[in-house]
User: What shape does this take?
Amino acid sequence: MMHTAVGWHVELEFTEDDQHTRAAAMVRLPDGSEVRAHGHASRHRVDSQQPRVGEEVAGARALNELAMLLLTKAHDEIDAASGRTSHPINV
Assistant: This one.
């Protein structure tokens, strides 16, 4: 039987204008640290306005950056605990 040991909550916040959508992502970790990332999407002037699509693209890019930052953080913590340099963790 599996038990949930910890839960993470990721926050995404968007700002938009007619051409651009920006996303800010943040996760608070159980140790009290926060990891933050950003994403951006631009609408071509001939495309119709679809704010949800801009949010999806910018949000996905922010979450992708957040994932990479978390992998780097984990890699650094593994190295610190082991006292050696390990191979980077890749997606």
Q: What stands out?
A: The mean pLDDT is 90. Residues 51-82 form the longest helix (32 residues).
